[in-house]
Amino acid sequence: MTVVSLVKGETVAEAVREAVDMIGGIKKVVKRGDKVFIKPNLVVPLPRESGTVTDPEVVRAVIKLVKEAGASQIMVGDAPVFIYKSRRAFEVTGTKKVVEEEEAEAVYLDEEEYVEVKFPKAKLMNTVKLPKKLLDCDKFITVPKLKTHTMCGVSLAIKNQIGLLSPEEKQIYHRTDIHQKVVDVTLAAKPDLAIIDGLIALEGQGPTYGNSVKMGVVIAGEDLVAVDAVASSIMGFDPQEIAHLRLAAIQGLGEMNLDRIEVKGANISEVRRYFKRPLADVMGVYPNVEVYVGCACHEGCLAWTRVELDRLGKHGLIEKIGKINLIIGRDVRLPQKMEGRTYVIGDCAERYRDRGVFIAGCPAFGILGNIQPSK
């Protein structure tokens, strides 16, 4: 039976160590002389208190365990969403300081060499570019955050794989096909161990604009699907709700049936909290934002537009933008006249570009930061 540990600890180091010990210990995974790649989730440059990024003290605890196992080289690598730089994310999150203090190597993935990898078992991405330093390693440990995600429902071990991609490839992944694509990346570069940081989690409009929640848990396992299934359940989701988990299980990446997963440590029911769900809806969110939608991707332009609205709301800017109109998707029915500024979002809506500011793309990532307060 697949084993996943669920630990509530007094300190970060104790919780991480106990979680790994419960599944057989770090030496079960890392052998003396191994080169080890550790990937946290540093999606944006925010401090640990935000609940958005992997706590640097969790990263420290993992590095220490890997050292004890006798690793010859330890690398900690990630890249934030492409509008930010890795060095900035490492600095602001506190990860750089920890990596330097523990004498590991910081790997800024947006500056690294990428190698094309062919993987015939993949459904959509038979060829994917991955960091050379990751491919040169013997072992791969993923250290994601416990949080919700507007496009994928949750962002856990499997979703954390997107951070491995180059900025260019990330931009073609966040559409409705993201669910299979993230599974394809996992098939091409499967972590040997997952340790989820659930100390301060994120609910609601994740992965960046949600609300932090103190959970105080660490979840660990070698089966990424099982780890994500347990973590999803802790957040109040049925694992079957999460599309990429269903696909990963069907394609042989792991076990998602909780009845066939042995959870060591705390019981799921003891720590479960029903997280506020993330929403990609854009209509009727704010009274001064009029939305006209035709046929549009939920995980694409709709979700990214919601991220932009969440940004404005989170920073108290939504009322300052005045009256605006958003046109999204194909075959949109529009009134002859619209009050206020208009944004035409995504390639599917290009035929309406003469109605306002056109933001190209599939999806239209350019919407991020584009809606500014009226002057």
Structure description:
The protein is globular and about 70 Å long. The termini are far apart. It folds into two domains: about 1-270, Rossmann fold, CATH 3.40.50; about 290-365, no CATH class. It is an alpha/beta fold and about 375 residues long. It has helices at about 10-20, 55-70, 85-95, 95-100, 130-135, 165-170, 180-190, 225-235, 245-250, 270, 300-315, and strands at about 1-10, 35-40, 75-80, 105-110, 115-120, 125-130, 140-145, 145-150, 155, 195-205, 210-220, 260-265, 290-295, 325-330, 340-345, 355-360. Helix 1 packs across helix 2 and helix 7 packs across helix 9. The longest helix has 17 residues, at about 300-315. Strands 1, 2, 3, 4, 7, 8, 9, 10, 11 and 12 form a ten-stranded mixed sheet that branches. Strands 13-14-15-16 form a four-stranded parallel sheet, with helices on one face. The chain has a two-stranded antiparallel ribbon with strand order 5-6.
